[in-house]
Amino acid sequence: MFIMAEQHATTDKFLETTDKQSATTDKPLETTDKQRATTDKLLETTDRPILSAANSARGTNM
Prior knowledge:
1 helix, mainly alpha
């Protein structure tokens, strides 16, 4: 029984460590997601004038 208790304790510590690593990994991923959202907004803002210019150019070429 003692050996099983030791194995459980070892497993619990391993799981705790894994949970901490997951939490640590999640934070950069959250930050990356926020950065992506910001980048997407910037790209949308940048694309609008480019698309408008492209549409205007198409209209004048016809």
